[in-house]
UniProtKB/TrEMBL annotation, chain A:
<comment type="similarity">
    <text>Belongs to the RNase PH family.</text>
</comment>
<dbReference type="GO" id="GO:0016075">
    <property type="term" value="P:rRNA catabolic process"/>
</dbReference>
<dbReference type="InterPro" id="IPR027408">
    <property type="entry name" value="PNPase/RNase_PH_dom_sf"/>
</dbReference>
<dbReference type="Pfam" id="PF01138">
    <property type="entry name" value="RNase_PH"/>
</dbReference>
<keyword id="KW-0539">Nucleus</keyword>
<dbReference type="GO" id="GO:0003723">
    <property type="term" value="F:RNA binding"/>
</dbReference>
<dbReference type="GO" id="GO:0000177">
    <property type="term" value="C:cytoplasmic exosome (RNase complex)"/>
</dbReference>
Automatic annotation (TrEMBL), chain B:
<feature type="domain" description="K Homology">
    <location>
        <begin position="143"/>
        <end position="200"/>
    </location>
</feature>
<dbReference type="GO" id="GO:0003723">
    <property type="term" value="F:RNA binding"/>
</dbReference>
<feature type="domain" description="Exosome complex exonuclease Rrp40 N-terminal">
    <location>
        <begin position="27"/>
        <end position="66"/>
    </location>
</feature>
<dbReference type="Pfam" id="PF15985">
    <property type="entry name" value="KH_6"/>
</dbReference>
<dbReference type="InterPro" id="IPR004088">
    <property type="entry name" value="KH_dom_type_1"/>
</dbReference>
<dbReference type="GO" id="GO:0071051">
    <property type="term" value="P:poly(A)-dependent snoRNA 3'-end processing"/>
</dbReference>
<protein>
    <recommendedName>
        <fullName>Ribosomal RNA-processing protein 40</fullName>
    </recommendedName>
</protein>
From TrEMBL, chain C:
<dbReference type="GO" id="GO:0071028">
    <property type="term" value="P:nuclear mRNA surveillance"/>
</dbReference>
<dbReference type="GO" id="GO:0034476">
    <property type="term" value="P:U5 snRNA 3'-end processing"/>
</dbReference>
<keyword id="KW-0963">Cytoplasm</keyword>
<dbReference type="GO" id="GO:0000467">
    <property type="term" value="P:exonucleolytic trimming to generate mature 3'-end of 5.8S rRNA from tricistronic rRNA transcript (SSU-rRNA, 5.8S rRNA, LSU-rRNA)"/>
</dbReference>
<dbReference type="GO" id="GO:0000176">
    <property type="term" value="C:nuclear exosome (RNase complex)"/>
</dbReference>
<dbReference type="GO" id="GO:0005730">
    <property type="term" value="C:nucleolus"/>
</dbReference>
<dbReference type="GO" id="GO:0016075">
    <property type="term" value="P:rRNA catabolic process"/>
</dbReference>
Length: 253, 235, 294
C-alpha cells in the first residue's frame, strides 16, 4: 500500500488514559498514551522534579537495545519541554506503541528481534507531543520534528524529506531534527557520512519543514508549503489538530 | 463565543492587547498560564484563552482527565485506609494518597468522629476539610459513582450550569422530559459524580446520561433527546 | 509501579444490587456484547479490535528459521502477550502480572493447541528450514474482557496475514520478497473464539453476564472462558477458581456462547472480504494471484 504523505492525527483515542494520540505520517503509525502526574516508584522519585518515563514498544518482536536508545533520546528531549519542576516526586509516563512502519518491498526482514528504524524518531516525537497536549500536561513549548536524508543521485546532492526505507538504504546520511515552537533546535541526531556544509543544508531544510511561520489562512498554507520545501508544514498541522480538539472540548461555550 | 477568543499552544506569545490591564486589582493568572519574570506570560497548555477584565484575571480553558489538587476544590475522595489520626484517601487512580485528618469533619471530636471503611467515598475540600461521608447513612441508598472528564465536572459545578455550562441533563431528568425522576447527586472536581436514588434503575439512567453527555459532547437538544431515549428504554 | 485503583465500596455494592434487578451500569442485557469493531491495518496481518473501551491490536509476522530438533516436520508458531504500562500504569515492563499470564495461557490453549494453524504447512526443508510465525498482542486499553477481544484480534490478524512466497528448485530454497512475488496466506484450519462469562451473586452462578467491563470484573465472584469454533467444537473451558457453578448453568452458557461465536465468525469473514475489496482496486490483485497459482 502506498504510504500516506500528509500527516494525520487523532487525539483521545484511548479513553482510559489521561491523554492519548494516534499519528500517522510517511508510512509510520504510532499510538501514544500519557499518564500523569502519577505516583512515582521509589527508585524513580526525584525530590525537585517529575520523572519522565518513555517506553517505546515495537509492533512485532521484543524490544532491544535500539528501543532503549530511542527511549533515552526521547526521554531527555521531552523532559526539556515538560514543566517537570511543577510536579516534584511524581511520574509522567509516556508509552509509544508502533503500529505500522513502512516496509521495504525489496528486502525480507528478520522480525523476532525488532529493530526500529532511525527515521521513526520524528513520528515518535510528534505522537508524544500530541498525547502530552491531549493530556494537558503543562509544557514549556511544543515540538515539531522531521527526518531528512542526504543522498548522492547522479553526481548531485539531494535532500529528501521524510525518506522511505528504500531512500534510507541508498542515502549517504540520515538526520533527525526537532525544533521547539520558538524555533530553537532541540534535537539533532545524525547517522552516516556527511560534511559540515551538508549538515548545514540539511538543517536548513528541516527548519523550513518544522518552523515555517504559519500564515493565517489554513488550507492555503498547506498547499503552498508542499511546493516550497517538499514536506508538510508541521507547525500548522499541530495547530489545526489542537484547534479541532479544543473546539470539540469547548463546544458548550 | 467559541470563535472569538484565540487558541493558544504551550510556549506561544500572547498578544499584549489581550492581557487585561485594570489598575484596581493585581493581574491574576489561572490554570494553564505561567509568569516568567519580569513580564512574560506564557501558556503551558493548549486551550482557549479566557480573560476577565472586571476581575483582572486570565486563564486557559481546556479539558483533561487527570486531576491536579488545588486548594478549595470540592472533591469526592475514596478512603484507602486509616492511620492513627488521618484517613489516607485517593483523589484519582495511581496517584499518591492524600491525608484527611479524623477531626476535620464538622463538629467531630475524638468520640464523635465518623468511622469510615476502606473504599468509602467522602466529600472534601482541597484544604483537607471533611464535608461528610457519602451514601453510607443507614436509611439512604448507597448509590453509585461515575467518572466524567474534569471539564464536565466543572460545568456541573457552575452556579448556573444550564446557562453557562450548557448542561441540562440533570434538570431534564428531574423535570418534564425525564418524567420527574427522584435522585440526588454530589459532584467532585476530581471528575467523579455520585448519584443516589431509591431506585437502582434511576441511578443507572442518571449515570449513563451524564457519561454520554460528557463523552458525546452533546448540546442542549442532544441532551434532551438522550434523556427521552434513556427514560423510554428504562420502562 | 502504582497499585491498580480499587473501585469504591459504593460501586461494588451497586453493581451487584443492580444486577439483582436485571440491570447493568451501561444498560446492556446480560448476554449482550459491547459494540465490536474490527479494523485491518495497511500492512497484512495487523488487526485492531475495539470492544467498548477495550482495545487490542494484534500483529502477525513470519521469518525463516531452523525447526526444533524434536519436531523436524513442524514450523514454529508463537503468541506473545505483554501488557505494557499503556494498558494501565500498574503494569510494568518485563514483570508479568497474573492477568498477563492467564491471558497468554488461554490464547495458547485456544489458538495454538486447537490446531487452528496448520504448523506442518510451515515446514520448508524437513529438519533444516521452517517458517516461524509470531503474533504480538498489544493491549492498548483495558476496560474488561481482554480475553475475548485478544482472541478475536489474534484470529483476525492470522487470517489477514500473508507470508512471503517460497519455491524449491533443485535443492535450492528461494524466499521471494514482496516486490518479486505476491505473498501468500497461511494454511488456516478453523477459527476458534473465546466467550467469557462472569458470575455474580452468592448462589452457584446465580447471575451470568457476558462481556464484563473492568468494574464488573472487579466485583464478580467467578468467571468461565469457553473457546469454540462456529461448528460448536469446544477447544477448551477454563474456570479458574471462584465460586462453584451449577453444571446445567454451564451447559446453558456454552450454548449461548455458540451463537456469539457464529456472530464473531461472520464479523471476521465480512471484514476480511471488505478489506480484500479495498485492496483489490481495479482487479490488479486478481491478476497477480492468477500468476501465482500456476
Amino acid at each position: 500500500m502506498t504510504a500516506t504523505t500528509a500527516p494525520e492525527a487523532a487525539l483521545g483515542v484511548l479513553p482510559r488514559a489521561d491523554g492519548s494520540a494516534k499519528y500517522s505520517h510517511a508510512g509510520y503509525t504510532v499510538t501514544a498514551s500519557v499518564s500523569g502526574p502519577i505516583e512515582a516508584q521509589r527508585r524513580d522519585e526525584h525530590a525537585y522534579e517529575a520523572h519522565v518515563d518513555v517506553v517505546v514498544r515495537p509492533a512485532a518482536g521484543v524490544g532491544g537495545t535500539r528501543e532503549r536508545h530511542l527511549e533515552s533520546i526521547l526521554q531527555s528531549t521531552l523532559a526539556q519541554i515538560i514543566l517537570i519542576k511543577n510536579f516534584p516526586r511524581s511520574l509522567i509516563q509516556i508509552v509509544l506503541q508502533v503500529e505500522d512502519s513502512p516496509e521495504n518491498d525489496y528486502v525480507n526482514t528478520k522480525l523476532v528481534q525488532a529493530s526500529l528504524n532511525f527515521a521513526i524518531m520524528p513520528a515518535l516525537i510528534q505522537t508524544a507531543v500530541l498525547a502530552l497536549l491531549s493530556a494537558g500536561v503543562p509544557m514549556r513549548a511544543t515540538l515539531t520534528a522531521t527526518a531528512v536524508a542526504m543522498a548522492h543521485r547522479d553526481g548531485a546532492k539531494k535532500t529528501i524529506v521524510d525518506p522511505t526505507p528504500r531512500d534510507i538504504e541508498t542515502a549517504q546520511s540520515v538526520h533527525v531534527f526537532a525544533f521547539t515552537s520558538r524555533d530553537e533546535l532541540l534535537l539533532a541526531e545524525s547517522e552516516g557520512d556527511f560534511t559540515v556544509e551538508e549538515w548545514d543544508d540539511v538543517c536548513e531544510t528541516a527548519k523550513k519543514v518544522c518552523c515555517h511561520s504559519a500564515p493565517a489562512k489554513e488550507g492555503m498554507a498547506m498547499v503552498l508549503d508542499d511546493e516550497d520545501v517538499g514536506g508538510p508544514d508541521m507547525r500548522q498541522f499541530l495547530r489545526s489538530t489542537m484547534k479541532s480538539k479544543v473546539d470539540a472540548d469547548l463546544h458548550w461555550k | 463565543m467559541a470563535t472569538d477568543l484565540p487558541l493558544v499552544l504551550p510556549g506561544e506569545t500572547i498578544d499584549a492587547t489581550l492581557i487585561p490591564s485594570s489598575q484596581k486589582h493585581p493581574l491574576r493568572l489561572g490554570p494553564g498560564l505561567r509568569h516568567i519574570p519580569p513580564s512574560d506570560i506564557v501558556p503551558t497548555a493548549a486551550g482557549q484563552l479566557i480573560t476577565n477584565p472586571v476581575k483582572n484575571s486570565m486563564w486557559i480553558e481546556y479539558n483533561s482527565n487527570r486531576y491536579t489538587p488545588s486548594q478549595g476544590d470540592i472533591i469526592l475522595a475514596q478512603i484507602l485506609r486509616s492511620t492513627g489520626d488521618f484517613y489516607l484517601c485517593t483523589l484519582s487512580p495511581h496517584t499518591a494518597p492524600a491525608t484527611l485528618p479524623h477531626l476535620a469533619f464538622e463538629s467531630a471530636t475524638k468520640k464523635t468522629r465518623p468511622v469510615l471503611q476502606p473504599g468509602q467515598l467522602v466529600a472534601s475540600t482541597g484544604k483537607a476539610d471533611g464535608l461528610g461521608p457519602i451514601g453510607v447513612s443507614p436509611g439512604s441508598p448507597g448509590g453509585c459513582v461515575f467518572d466524567v472528564s474534569l471539564g464536565f465536572a466543572r460545568r456541573l459545578l457552575m452556579a448556573r450550569s444550564r446557562e453557562e455550562g450548557g448542561v441540562g441533563v440533570l434538570e431534564m431528568l428531574g423535570g418534564e422530559e425525564g418524567g420527574g425522576l427522584a435522585f440526588e447527586t454530589a459532584v467532585g472536581r476530581n471528575g467523579r459524580v455520585w448519584v443516589g436514588s431509591e431506585s437502582a434503575r434511576t441511578v443507572v439512567v442518571v449515570g449513563r446520561a451524564l457519561q454520554e453527555t460528557d463523552r458525546g459532547g452533546l448540546g442542549m437538544e442532544g441532551q434532551r433527546r438522550l434523556v427521552k431515549k434513556l427514560v423510554r428504554d428504562m420502562r | 509501579m502504582p497499585r491498580e485503583a480499587e473501585p469504591s465500596l459504593n460501586e461494588k455494592q451497586f453493581v451487584t444490587q443492580a444486577l439483582q434487578e436485571n440491570l447493568r451500569l451501561d444498560g446492556r442485557e446480560f448476554d449482550q456484547y459491547r459494540p465490536i469493531e474490527l479494523n485491518f491495518g495497511d500492512q497484512h496481518g495487523v488487526a485492531d479490535v475495539t470492544l467498548g473501551k477495550t482495545r487490542v491490536l494484534a500483529k502477525a509476522t513470519a521469518e525463516v528459521t531452523v525447526p526444533y530438533t524434536d519436531r523436524p516436520l513442524d514450523g514454529i508458531f508463537t503468541i506473545a502477550t505483554e501488557l505494557s504500562p499503556m494498558t494501565s500504569p500498574s503494569f510494568e515492563v518485563n514483570r508479568p502480572t497474573e492477568t498477563e499470564v492467564l491471558l497468554s495461557r488461554l490464547l495458547e490453549k485456544t489458538v495454538r493447541r486447537s490446531g487452528a494453524l496448520d504448523t506442518e504447512s510451515l515446514c520448508l526443508v524437513a529438519g533444516e528450514k521452517c517458517w516461524s510465525v509470531r503474533v504480538d498482542v498489544h493491549v492498548l486499553a483495558h476496560d474488561g474482557n481482554l480475553m475475548d477481544a485478544a482472541c478475536l484480534a489474534v484470529v483476525a490478524a492470522l487470517r489477514h496475514f500473508r507470508k512471503p512466497d517460497t519455491s524449491m528448485a533443485g535443492g535450492v530454497l528461494t524466499v521471494y520478497t514482496p516486490a518479486e512475488r505476491e505473498p501468500v496466506p497461511l494454511s488456516w484450519l478453523h477459527s476458534p473464539f473465546c466467550v467469557t462469562w462472569s458470575f455474580f451473586g452468592e448462589d452457584e452462578g446465580e447471575m451470568a453476564v457476558l462481556d464484563a467491563t473492568w468494574l464488573e470484573e472487579q466485583v464478580r465472584v467467578g468467571s468461565c472462558t469457553v473457546s469454540l469454533n462456529k461448528h460448536g467444537e469446544i477447544c477448551q473451558i477454563a474456570k479458574l477458581g471462584g465460586t462453584p457453578v451449577d453444571a446445567v448453568a454451564l451447559l446453558q452458557c456454552t450454548s449461548v456462547a455458540l451463537t456469539k461465536v457464529k456472530e464473531f465468525s461472520d464479523l471476521v469473514d465480512r471484514r476480511l472480504a471488505e478489506d480484500l475489496k479495498r485492496r483489490d482496486k481495479g482487479g490488479f490483485m486478481a491478476e497477480l494471484r492468477a500468476e501465482n497459482d500456476r
